Amino acid sequence: MKSRTATKNRSCVGKRAYPTRAKAEAALQKLVAAGTSAERLKVYACRHCSAGFHIGHLGRDRRRQ
Q1: pLDDT tens across the length of the chain (65 residues)
Q2: How far apart (Å, rounded) are the C-alpha atoms in residues 39 and 32?
Q3: Phi, psi of 45 (to 5 degrees)
């Protein structure tokens, strides 16, 4: 059985954690105001750590929908 470490690394490593969805959404809006494209970014609850929420890119399968 394959380890879930790779998934955790993509989900958590190098990303800032936010305690609430509202704080993560506010941080996303600041990124957009600074020039980041919000088209591919989303706020998500992390399944791997107890830190709360992260901001990340949509997966390939979700981009095309």
Answers
A1: 455 556 666 667 778 889 999 999 999 999 999 988 878 889 988 887 777 899 988 766 654 44
A2: 10
A3: -80, 130
Rg (CA), the chain: 13
The continuous run of DSSP H or E covering 27 comes out as helix 21-33
Q: How far is CA 4 from CA 42, 45, 58, in A?
A: 22, 17, 19
Question: Is-contact 38 25, C-beta < 8 A?
Answer: no
For the chain, what is the domain count? 1
The model carries a pTM of 0.70
Contact of 17 with 55, CB cutoff 8 Å: no
Coil, strand or helix at 12: coil
